[in-house]
Amino acid sequence: MPDATHIITTKLPTEFDRRAFFTKMGLGSLGIAAAGTILFSYEYLSPNVLYEPSAVVNAGKPESFAMNSVTMDVNSGIYLVRAEEGYFALSAVCTHLGCLTAWNQDLGIIACPCHGSKFTRTGEKIEGPAPKPLPWLKTWVSDEGDLMVDRSTDIPPLQYLRI
Amino acid sequence: MPMNANQMIDKVRGSRVWRSVFRSGTGSSTLHRALAIQQNIFLHLFATKVRKRIVRFSATWYLGTLTLGTFLILVITGILLMLYYHPSVPQAYADMKDLQFVVSSGLFLRNLHRWSAQLMVFLVFAHMFKVFYRGAYRTPREFNWVIGVVLLVITLLLSYTGYLLPWDQLAFWAITVGSNLSSAVPLVGGKIHFLLLGGNQVNANALLRFYVLHCVVLPLAAILFIAIHFWRIRKDGGLYVQQSEPKTQAIPDGALAAKEGQ
Fold this sequence. Notes:
The complex is a heterodimer of chains A (163) and B (262). Chain A has 163 residues and is an alpha+beta fold.
């Protein structure tokens, strides 16, 4: 029966096409849904409002710091240094894995208790696993005459604040 | 007519209620004993028949079973500890101290949880070493080895997330250091760190996220993979039976010479 065979062979591709179309539609919809789920989850897991302390710290009157002194503010994790050249603020958070470093007055260095990184007073690395120097933080004097530090803004080193 | 203990047991096991629960029926024939394993939801994960020498202590040192034992202790003691612990910044540390000094048996449960956790990590490693040196990871058991590696990672993550919950200095700085490790991942490191802590620093969000991971997400993942792990033992042909060393004369001269030449 040549006619019957002919009908079957012409019908098969259309049937297959329709099936392939629905398969593609189904997989495509699932793909879009999966991408949406990933995006939705990422958005949900990222907090939009953080109840963390402000990045801006009021360090008080500049005159309260003695010449050539290093003052650590443990709560905000910064050093306030008054040098001959002027004032500067340094992050006290170790650039290795985020431990809080400490100023050693006798040795004149900043040292990290966790993995032994050591830094100079200006934040340069002396030794240890820390990959980067301690960053300098943006400082300015407010209208009230207070020394202000923005912990979220790094500045290039050796930019002293002269008052 | 008075019944002895065995007759009593037989009567209970023959009762309609018993038969409705345990459908395999009574009897000590091989078939009945096999059905008792096969038709039980918990036992059906295992093979109905095992070689006697493989259930000896010397074969596996029962390291996998002991690991499961510590896991069960951790689940039970963990649920009990949850009844007194609030995962919030003002309360977490005080609750941990209350568990130690105020709650009846709190110190015992907390120590049991802590020591079991240490022991579980040790047993997981011991189990993996034993499997490795026996060669039990080879075909057809490679996939179960991979499942085992996943379970190792889950175990370590459970340890890590649990470490923050006492909310003391050690916990805070350990998680600060540990979470900063994730920042080292190229490109997305900072994002992973932010999502893990729910912020930029170890704070209230981090405590709550670690609590949920420690008490819900990771234990459920562990139970799922443990089930697959046990089921695969049966599917892969039961516990690995160590082949006896091939006899010297069984090795062809050429092969031996080639081996020595290497």
